[in-house]
Amino acid sequence: MADRMAFFTTPRAERARRDARDRLGDRREVYRPGALLPVVGGQAERCMDCGLPFCHSACPLGNLVPDWNRLVAAADWRAAAARLLATNNFPEFTGRLCPAPCESACVLAIGGAAVTIKNVELAIADRAWEEGWDGPLPPGRGGGRDAGRRVAVIGSGPAGLAAAQQLTRAGHATTVYERADRAGGLLRYGIPPFRLEKHRLERRLDQLRAEGTDFRTGVWVGRDVPGEELRSGYDALVVAVGATACRELPVPGRELAGVHQAMDYLTWANRTDEGDCPASPVSAEGRHVVIVGGGDTAADCLGTALRQRAASVTQLDINPRPPERRAAEQPWPVHPKVYRETTSHEESGAVAAGPRVFAATTVGFEPGPDGRLAAVRFAETEPADRSPRPGTEQTLPAQLVLLALGFTGPEPDQRLFAQLGLAIGPEGALARDDGFGTAAEGVFVAGDAGRGQSLVVWAIAEGRAAAAAVDRYLRGRTELPSPIRASERPLTP
Predict the structure, then answer these.
(1) Is-contact 348 302, C-beta < 8 A?
(2) Within 10 Å of residue 341's Cβ, how many Cβ atoms?
């Protein structure tokens, strides 16, 4: 029987990582193989099975966290997997990539350390694959086939994949169109393998194919196939093209050779891992690198540059250093802005690669004698308006600058939008109603394309909800779960 006082007697424990220096010699995932199981049983026991589980409501998927914690504590792993997979198509992705707002909303986090929900989730997901509990669910097993309904999903990131899987399992003939040569979207080319090894993505894609989902890669809808042609050939469309328009930095010297968008850099690194080229044409090897930005993409660039043996790596974050503890204006259960170190920052500290500078505004890039990038100029940031503080300017040597400033929305030159009659809303995302529908009949929008830059867990929730909307549109009813509305947003102070 589980220890009902474990939340009081058992301290929080995390999954063990490999030595920071050792893992810089490869691009495998940073955690020690087999390090989860000794941890998660005791952590699952710490769950208090609250009457009002805020962890559940903080997760857009509505994950049944207390349920599967209780089952893991009782060593009923198969039942725990069934509870987890009931709400989350890809828990091996969220267990590795999600920042875990569920843990910030854990009742234990009010005055102490939350349950390691993310670790428990990942342990269940990996165990389900190992035991064969997360196998294909073709329509005959997953809910019957509704003959004659054809759906196209444009984009194969987590939102598109979740929508496609739900629609296929509901019995619709579903085809996913992806403009890149391989499916996966940012999971494929934006996330480094030290955070998500690609065999895990391939395994999930194989599952979708076994269930009946068709994939057509290397097809740019709107250019290779007109949107009108696709619309006439399918009963419904789901547009899940993501928010891939990178935010720019309009400062002097931006045009210099050596200044790149972070996603271009990460894509080439991932393509090199895929064997597409012997070496990345945008490599940090032997160079002084400056990363402009402070989010997850910046951390991914940091870890990648360290593995490419950069001479130094400095990260410039325009925001002030967050507090160590939750600020009063960010009360529980919101996901607070506190100081966090990623595994990449841990690696940087282990090899003294370079500083992480907060409240730093980049003011320009300087060329060397060869006309290429040679230095970065930055200054302290004025708190009121983020402008450079006079008299604080500094210069850093740099042969490579990576702009990790986030994304503004879908790429604005998408001919697809004009062909389908889709409009861009005031915040830069595609306009849609609360049920994921657009002004174009039978066309729905899911994921970052309609929400703006967000988290993988929100993308999966969007895909599931959009699939339910499409199913209802096609059949007049649906049994598919719809975890969120299009207008829902994370808990904020």
Answers:
(1) yes
(2) 11
Question: What's the whole-model pTM score?
Answer: 0.96
Contact (Cβ atoms closer than 8 angstroms) between residue 203 and residue 129: yes
pLDDT in tens, 139-185: 964 444 445 599 999 999 999 999 999 999 999 999 999 999 999 99
* Cα 333 off chain centre by: 21
* 457 token code pair: 């867990």
The rounded distance, in Å, linking the Cα atoms of 402 and 262 is 5
- CA 171 – CA 168 distance, rounded (Å): 5
Cα→Cα distances 279→186, 282, 288, Å: 20, 9, 18
Which residues on neighbouring strands pair with residue 388, listed in sequence order? 381
Tokens of 418: 């004009």
State the pairing for strand pair 360-367/373-380: antiparallel
List pLDDT tens digits, range 448-492. 999 999 999 999 999 999 999 999 999 999 999 999 999 999 977
CA distance linking residue 45 with residue 70, whole number of Å: 7
User: Tokens in use for 106?
Assistant: 């854990």
Length of the chain: 493
Structure tokens, 43 = 């952590």
